[in-house]
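ok trying this again, last paste got cut off
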Amino acid sequence: MSERRDPWPQRGTAPLPPAGRPEGARGRRILRRLGRQAEALGADRGDHAPVVEIRKLWTVFQSPGREQVVHRDLDLTIERGEVLSLVGGSGTGKTVLLRQILGLEKPTKGEVRVLGAAPGELSAKGTANVGMLFQHGALFSAFNVLDNIAFALRELKVLPDVLIRDAAMVKLQMVGLGPEHALKMPADLSGGMIKRVALARALVMDAPLLLLDEPTAGLDPEGADDFCDLLRGLHRELGLTVVMVTHDLDTLFDLSTRIAVLADQRVIVAGTAREVIACPHPFIQDYFLGGRGQRAMAALHEHPEADDAAQVDPDGAAGLAIDVGTARAEAPPRERSGPWPPPAATRS
């Protein structure tokens, strides 16, 4: 059985901060203090440069007698403030690319730059640039909720204990959980609550870039909708740049302002949903214009009020269902085998 430990034993049984929205007066004071700390730590976040730049990236996995090339000369630019979704078939390296942006893996060759620096690096004074929500939460099972959220701040070893505790409480309430959950252990949480605690942990360093690996995986439809609403609100209010891997078409159309499709060891197209669907690649025709894709787009078209992404990108997901038939009619017959693009002699 997991040991239930108090992350701040010197505080003993001191009461938790009272419930309330983080945008209240007390929450604003805490955030201002945290902002001054972050400024003092020297975070360098240019306002106009791309958040992520990937150039000529190769990922090669070696095994005895075999070499597997996952990415070959892959290029991708992610601009500030967008929600970019990575889609592709199994084995196309979507999660590998997330891990390379985060700095958990290094590409075989090529360059990945996050806010102008190599990924995963902390600045000279210790400020993180990237937050990560792992597919299954990846909470520390021996830490309670507040300890999980505060972990990165405590590891800096430069912030006052009171500030760390208050900042963790603000993030907890920011993701829709009250202070009554602060001392619970991960084993006591539902799947949706685990996702929210993991999201709070990803946000606690106020990183401008948030990476999401299958954010709605394992959630029931209502839970997935609620989590999408939460992500959409946080993206808007915090000005986050979000990179998301998802196989859930509802989540894809609900949140994305741009979609990048991985196939043939590279990004074959990156753009709005309308632009992606216009690409005649066989994978795209199967993925977006098959039965599941059409049902997802039709549902979105029937309930446009649920799609805030359309307010960001009027050519994005909200107008898709109108053009599905046209896109299918204009697309060439699907090719089940052979290289893409086809040899020049066979192109129309």
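PB: full thing came through this time. Strands lie at 52-63, 66-78, 83-88, 109-114, 130-133, 209-213, 241-245, 258-263, 266-271.
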